[in-house]
Amino acid sequence: MSITNSKRKKVYEILEHGFDGSKISRLFSGFIVMLIILNVSAIILESYKPIGEKYHREFYLFNVFSVLVFTLEYFARIWVSVESPRNDSSAPIKSRVKYLFSPVSLIDLLAIAPFYLSFIFAIDLRYLRMLRMLRLLKLTHYFKGLRLFIDVLRKELPSIGAAIIIMSVLVILSASVMYGVEHVAQPDVFDSIPSAIWWSVVTMTTVGYGDVTPVTFLGKFISIFIMLLGVGIVALPAAMLAAKFGDELRTRRQLLEREIATALQDGIITSEEQTAIEKLSESMGISSQELEHVILNYNRNTPCSLKCDNCGKELSISRGNH
């Protein structure tokens, strides 16, 4: 391995292993997470006019510093993306282009793009602050639960899209019915179907602000069924995501256990098999502690022991150590 590749590998471990990696990796992750939190706090405080006007220069300098750090991190992640187990290290350009269009890379780009675009286009300060809030999404790099949520959301997008379409159809139909029933009794409130859509949405989501309510007997009678229907329909996407979360965690764990079982068929795990297991767990978002737990559970149920193929000693898998 060349010196450049060795350095790239070390930088990759610092950036990607996060709180499950070495001390340097944990310190860097803590610094970035704290910087993100401070950025959000600064944006909130800056929106308060007395504080924003008094410390305008300080807020601006802090924003410049943050953008520089996030920019360096962004390009560093592009540089080391070839080290990811999901990419092909033999095709660095292809791997980096693939990473550039990945969700996590686009999130990093959105975190810094508004600052640079403000020099080219005149962006309203209110919208600029709103766009800077997107830096919160960078936390997906450092909390694996958020990565799992994105993966599940991406896989369930067709099903969630279908549920949203069903909700939209029901909202429009219920708004049309209520407009026809209530328009004569309340011409100012239900003056059009778009106005009735507001009532339909807040009723189906069981929020019910009370600013728009039916007054006729038929309107109230229909509202009962719409509210009961809304409880089930609106809760459907949440139930789908909750079920998929459990399935995804179970599938990942079973896949890792199968990989460990395959590696231990001869009772010895080779260096290549250890590396493969580590890469698989990393690509699945499984921490080194979780990996150790899976291996311990497997060893309790099987007579095989985890041994190194070189020295024959008991082997403990932890990222970055061998």
Figure out the total of helices. Answer: 13
Largest sheet: none
Estimated helix fraction = 55-70%
Give the amount of beta strand, in percent: under 5%
Poorly predicted segments: 304-309, 315-322
Shape: flat
Q: Structural class, from helix and strand content?
A: mainly alpha
How would you summarize this macromolecular structure in one to three sentences?
With 322 residues, the protein is an all-alpha fold. 70% of the residues lie in helices and 0% in strands.
Question: Could you explain the architecture of this structure?
Answer:
The protein is mostly helical. 70% of the residues lie in helices and 0% in strands. It has 13 helices and no strands. Helix 1 packs across helix 4 (56-80) and helix 8 packs across helix 11. 17% of the residues are buried.
Give the topology.
Blueprint: H1 3-16, H2 23-46, H3 49-54, H4 56-80, H5 92-100, H6 103-117, H7 125-132, H8 144-155, H9 157-182, H10 193-204, H11 217-263, H12 271-283, H13 288-301
Which features would summarize this protein structure in a list?
0% strand, 322 residues, mainly alpha, single chain, disordered C terminus, 13 helices
